[in-house]
Amino acid sequence: MRRSGYYGRKPSRSYEGIILTVRKTSAKQLVVTVLTRQAGILHVLARRSTQGKMGYGTLAPLAEMTFDVFEKDGVYTLTEYDCRSNKRLRQLTWDGYVYSQIFVEIVLFMAGGEADEVLYNLVRLYGRAIELKDVRIVTLIAGWQLMALTGFLPDIDTARVFYQGQGYCQQPVYYIDDEMPENMKELPLTPTVRQTWKTLVHYPWGTEKTVNLRGSDLKFLEALLYNYVNQCSERQMKTPELLVARG
Question: Which end of the chain has the smaller Cβ count within 10 Å, N or C?
């Protein structure tokens, strides 16, 4: 890999990572958000002309990449890269693609600023799993496992769930807490739902094991996940709205 000699630049560094988002900021420049093994999330500048000239593969969400950057004044610029694009992503239906972006948004909301080997491996496993399995189910599994990894998972046996009609993008409003919030009602959870919830959290990756979900449980645990991400991050997920807008 090349080493920069320009004044003010630090020597280039090598990383391996998984692309989360690619955003165009101008006709000639992209910002690539990458979850790296070595440093957590990095926002890297890349010239659009870079693709195919300074590296291999297409810069796209959930692609695995090894790359070099130089850093100056806190700004990272891509120099060389080798990218393994996620072929399955190009074959997904619209809904399937949205589910993959829902998981990316959860990662962006919940990931800390430091390197996390376990989180990195979960995101990598997710990207590979959607090439083989139902992306909706995989997103639900990985989403709840991510909440567990970040330390926000409640005690499933005793968790209390409260609800209040519909909110953003026609999703039911759920809230997990020990005490009942004002103007909300408690939603009793059946033993079956709690057991299904546990199954998702403890699902073993890399096996042929399948998860059988009733339609009502799937919808509930999805909506609960999105609401809980909002609750823990104190932000509002936007990607689930794309399912409603399409539907």
Answer: C
Determine phi and psi for 179, rounding to 5 degrees: -115, 150
Residue tagged 């950057």 (tokens): 69
Distance CA 9, CA 70 (A): 7
- Per-residue pLDDT tens for 111-147? 988 899 999 999 999 999 988 889 999 999 999 999 9
| Fold classified for 13-85 | OB fold (Dihydrolipoamide Acetyltransferase, E2P) (2.40.50)
Question: pLDDT tens-digit profile of 189-244?
Answer: 999 999 999 999 999 998 877 888 899 999 999 999 999 999 999 999 999 999 87
Which among 49, 46, 48, 18 has a CA at the least distance from the CA of 32? Answer: 46
Q: What residue ranges do the domains of the chain occupy?
A: 13-85, 88-246
